[in-house]
């Protein structure tokens, strides 16, 4: 999102996080901006039953964990490196100076945060009142909408990741996807889901 040379010019550094290393914990104070150069990150909460509820997956070029910087509140979720990752880290004060100096980047963040808020609102509604098939379709349509593609869209998530993002069990996701295929709401080609 932010060009690497700009991150460096404002005092950002590139840090290495090994697979399964925690980047920050839920409840910690938000002091840094994070942007992935290479790797994958998962943000999640643990339920009282010990099940993970995934807030999002992030990959090369994505930033994560920004809302607490803007709202001056603690991290609402834990971030974990899913594989060996290289992540830019920029102190909060430097991040805000950067945004003031580059209003076009600030506008990108405003749009990104709004997009994430819409996603959270959709998922909160889905989890509270709709059956599994509806929850999965809402997630998949949201992902497809992010690409602005009118053609068939290949879902890049595993069944486990869909489970984590919808709060459903993997077995329920598998059954629901088969049911959605029978109703022609989606298609499965070579074990990949298309919508």
TrEMBL record:
<feature type="domain" description="Cyclic nucleotide-binding">
    <location>
        <begin position="15"/>
        <end position="116"/>
    </location>
</feature>
<keyword id="KW-0804">Transcription</keyword>
<keyword id="KW-0238">DNA-binding</keyword>
<keyword id="KW-0805">Transcription regulation</keyword>
<dbReference type="InterPro" id="IPR000595">
    <property type="entry name" value="cNMP-bd_dom"/>
</dbReference>
<dbReference type="InterPro" id="IPR012318">
    <property type="entry name" value="HTH_CRP"/>
</dbReference>
<dbReference type="InterPro" id="IPR014710">
    <property type="entry name" value="RmlC-like_jellyroll"/>
</dbReference>
<feature type="domain" description="HTH crp-type">
    <location>
        <begin position="130"/>
        <end position="195"/>
    </location>
</feature>
<dbReference type="InterPro" id="IPR018490">
    <property type="entry name" value="cNMP-bd_dom_sf"/>
</dbReference>
<dbReference type="InterPro" id="IPR050397">
    <property type="entry name" value="Env_Response_Regulators"/>
</dbReference>
<dbReference type="Pfam" id="PF00027">
    <property type="entry name" value="cNMP_binding"/>
</dbReference>
<protein>
    <submittedName>
        <fullName>Crp/Fnr family transcriptional regulator</fullName>
    </submittedName>
</protein>
<dbReference type="GO" id="GO:0005829">
    <property type="term" value="C:cytosol"/>
</dbReference>
<dbReference type="GO" id="GO:0003677">
    <property type="term" value="F:DNA binding"/>
</dbReference>
<dbReference type="InterPro" id="IPR036390">
    <property type="entry name" value="WH_DNA-bd_sf"/>
</dbReference>
<dbReference type="Pfam" id="PF13545">
    <property type="entry name" value="HTH_Crp_2"/>
</dbReference>
<dbReference type="GO" id="GO:0003700">
    <property type="term" value="F:DNA-binding transcription factor activity"/>
</dbReference>
